[in-house]
Every structure is written in C-alpha cells, then in structure tokens.
Specification:
Elements: E1 9-15, H1 28-41, E2 45-52, E3 55-61, H2 68-84, E4 100-104, H3 106-117, H4 119-125, E5 128-129, H5 130-133, E6 148-149
Parallel strand pairs: 5-6
Antiparallel strand pairs: 1-3, 1-4, 2-3
Helix pairs in contact: 1-2
Amino acid sequence: MSDNYIQLYYHLVWATKDRIPYIGDTTEAPLYQHIETLCNSARITVYALNGMPDHVHLVCTIPPTLALSDVIKDLKGKSAHYINHLDRNRLNLTWQPGYGALTLAKRNLKPVVEYVRNQKRHHADNTLSAQMEWASGLSSDVPEGHSVTP
C-alpha cells in the first residue's frame, strides 16, 4: 500500500424512509455526532456533515480498504440503531434503501463542503443543486416545492 496514491473525495446523500422528517431538534446533534464518531473509528475523514429533517449529506474520504457500499450500510444501520435507542427518542428512525454518491475533484471540495454546511439556507432560499440533493439518483427525491439547478 505504501506505493499507492489515492485521493478520492465523496459526497454522499441518503434519506429517511418515505422522506419522513425524523431528524429534528432533539435528534440532529446526536445523530451527526454519532455518524462522525463512526467515521472516525473507520478512519474516514469527514469534511462536512449536515442535512435536513429528511436527509443527510456527508463529504468525506474513505480508506481504499473499505467498500463504499459497506460504509453506507454501516453508517445508516448503526446511526439508526443509536438514535432509536436514545431515551428521549420516541421515533423509529429508518433510512430508505439506496443512497447517492458522487466523487469530487479536489478543486471542487471547498464549494461542496460549503454547500453541505449551508444546507438549511439552501433549502430555505430554494437554491438547491440537483446533483447534490439526489438521495437515490432520482430527481423525485428533491422535496416538493423546491427547484433545483443542474
């Protein structure tokens, strides 16, 4: 491995089942903190983690020894399990099948990180990016009433 050079940046998006707004005031901080802890323990570098009540965005690098699909499966499964077992949580967080995954050039990392960090503003201002909002590769995943720019 010491002779390999790998520089892969990912923008990952996944949504709650049926786009139900499970991620609220009491669950957002512990959810994101737990996802970040999971990433750190897997040696995944997190550049940005944010979202809305019905979806999550993660900008990261993943070690080449880990398969992307396994990473997503673990993050989704373990984060839902964690949130569903919090004392104060009365919801049953469930993620919908599938996810969106884009690779980024290093020159695009900073604008995508800023986009993810400003998720709530982009949704409030209706200034969404179609590619960055797709949770499963379908444009229908963009919430009703929002327009997107290609």
